[in-house]
């Protein structure tokens, strides 16, 4: 996160002490309280307590060291007198000495945090080592711009993939519908059962027409079988009444036709049960009456 920073106060002035205890001073407790204004942070200001300027070796300095960053160029080259980092008359800190005269930097100065939101959420808050003095490196800027530019492209790619997926699903759906329609028109039992179990609003016109035609054919087949059985029954009864020499055989044929009728109307278990009962009765010589209804 790109921010603007400035030295707010000595860390010693913000230290909490118990009643009656000796309060620390800038001479006994080094460190600054740095305020940071970050546009990306909705909470407003970020406070970094205990920050210390970074020093680097310098042969031009009397102490052999000088502040590394330009924001602290007018600060003392040593930490032996930490109170000297503030002008007692103007109460300006050395990062803002340019406000009282030329030749020195002015606050605020550029700084940034890496993953500021994550550091704020942790229990210890923002630490001094999290603050980086200077402008945000170009790589982070390019990365942010790249993410912003790639988001629309990612949404476009997602839309294209979803469209392809939907097109594939629709194609498979159309193929399945066409297969069911062809199976129904050809009289395929599995296709007819599948279409019959579907809700009516999901059936196509071809499915509905094929299902209706199948129902009509089934009714016609059942009707023809019923008429044929009645004619056969009437013929057998007439021959038995006339005393035909094959009357007993005709009676057995009548029972077989009756079993066939049960096979069409009842389940397979019921048919087997009726056939076993019929076989036992025939073994005992107790044939059922021929006038029994079909």
From TrEMBL:
<keyword id="KW-0472">Membrane</keyword>
<keyword id="KW-0812">Transmembrane</keyword>
<keyword id="KW-1133">Transmembrane helix</keyword>
<feature type="transmembrane region" description="Helical">
    <location>
        <begin position="139"/>
        <end position="167"/>
    </location>
</feature>
<protein>
    <submittedName>
        <fullName>Uncharacterized protein</fullName>
    </submittedName>
</protein>
């Amino acid at each position: 996160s790109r921010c603007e920073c400035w030295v707010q106060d000595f860390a010693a002035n913000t230290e909490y002490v118990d009643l009656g205890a000796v309060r620390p001073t800038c001479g006994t407790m080094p460190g600054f309280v740095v305020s940071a204004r970050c546009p990306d942070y909705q909470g407003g200001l970020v406070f970094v307590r205990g920050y210390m300027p970074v020093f680097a070796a310098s042969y031009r300095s009397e102490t052999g060291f000088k502040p590394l960053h330009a924001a602290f160029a007018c600060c003392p080259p040593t930490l032996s007198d930490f109170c000297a980092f503030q002008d007692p008359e103007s109460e300006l800190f050395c990062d803002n000495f340019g406000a009282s005269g030329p030749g020195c930097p002015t606050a605020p100065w550029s700084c940034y945090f890496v993953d500021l939101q994550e550091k704020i959420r942790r229990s210890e808050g923002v630490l001094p080592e999290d603050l980086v003095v200077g402008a945000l490196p170009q790589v982070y800027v390019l990365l942010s711009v790249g993410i912003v530019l790639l988001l629309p492209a990612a949404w476009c790619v997602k839309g294209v993939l979803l469209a392809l997926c939907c097109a594939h699903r629709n194609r498979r759906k159309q193929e399945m519908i066409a297969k069911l329609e062809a199976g129904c028109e050809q009289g395929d039992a599995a296709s007819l059962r599948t279409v019959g179990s579907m809700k009516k609003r999901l059936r196509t016109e071809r499915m509905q027409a094929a299902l209706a035609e199948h129902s009509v054919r089934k009714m016609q087949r059942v009707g023809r079988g019923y008429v044929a059985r009645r004619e056969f029954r009437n013929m057998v009864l007439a021959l038995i009444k006339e005393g035909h020499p094959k009357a007993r055989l005709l009676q057995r044929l009548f029972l077989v036709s009756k079993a066939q009728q049960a096979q069409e109307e009842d389940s397979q278990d019921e048919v087997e049960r009726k056939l076993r009962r019929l076989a036992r009765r025939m073994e005992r010589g107790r044939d059922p009456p021929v006038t029994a209804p079909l």
